[in-house]
Amino acid sequence: MTWPVEMRAARLLGYRLKIGLVVIIIMVLGFFNESQGTAHYGEDSVGSFPYFEYNVPRNVTTVVGQTAFLHCRVEQLGDKAVSWIRKRDLHILTAGILTYTSDQRFQVIRPDKSENWTLQIKFPQERDAGIYECQVNTEPKMSLAFQLNVVEAKAKVLGPADLYVKTGSLLSLTCILSQGPHDLGTIFWYKGSKLIEYKEVDANEIVEEPRIRLRTEWTEQLTSRLTIDKLLPTDSGNYSCVPTMAEAASVNVHVINGEHPAAMQHGNANTASPCALSVNLVISLYCTLATIYTSTVDGFR
To answer: For the chain, which has fewer Cβ within 10 Å, the N-terminal or C-terminal residue?
Structure first.
């Protein structure tokens, strides 16, 4: 049986159309499956877009001269770049691992293949305080603000600047340091230019009670107490409280044999009571007036 030429041509065309349709369906399905499997790697996908880690300190306090660190952590950075900007003048400090300022105190620290981009500021001054932004060059731009506080920490010795103490009594000096970050270091005491050394004694060790004792503790502030028992005239001098991360403070101690009208330390008291002085003054004035009055009356008699 022979088919007419027109029928054979139509049948061949039908086969080709069916084969073409099957190929198109396979290609569409393959593309769909491939796109579903790789969508999370795409740059426009939400899952791969860079984002900041917010669980980092963003209000940082340091003292003058102590190196400050601002930690910026960026996840899924991809081919984007991280920059640090000083907000007050919009100055670009760093871009990537490069520094774009002539101020060599600024530097970015980024370990290899790390998500951390840390801005390091050496020898910070009070003028460096302000807002710094960690930026990522996405579209639109991403930024995270950090507040840097730079304070001038100062020690303070409680009591007057000149202290008069009796020979043989107990001297107690208290130095406090409350301003600044929690890492306030420690405190040393000096008499003049000589460091006052004190050796800690084991609780089980039986030794004679030392004449000089030091105790430093941290609660809401750093507190150091210097006590000297059985004072000698040679204990007179300038005593300085010198913190490792703050400005020092000092007091002049005068060891005397007799009473001094002011700034005498009695036990734990640093100064004479103003109230007691006022009462004594009133009594003295009353006695003086009474004497004058009696003398005058006797004169008229």
So the answer is: N
129 CB neighbour count, 10 Å cutoff: 16
Bond from prior residue into 181 cis (ω within 30 degrees of 0): no
pLDDT-based confidence at 239, cuts 50/70/90? very high
Contact assessment for residue 192 and residue 282, using Cβ atoms and an 8 Å cutoff: no
Q: Record the tokens describing residue 6, joined without a space.
A: 């027109």
Query: Whose CA is closest to 171, among 221, 110, 219, 232?
Result: 232
In the chain, the largest separation of any two C-alpha atoms, in whole Å, equals: 176
Phi, psi angle pair for 279, to nearest 5°: -60, -45
- First-to-last alpha carbon distance for the chain, in angstroms, is 176
Q: How would you classify the pairing of strands 82-86 and 91-95?
A: antiparallel
Asked whether the beta carbons of 158 and 174 are under 8 A apart, the reply is yes
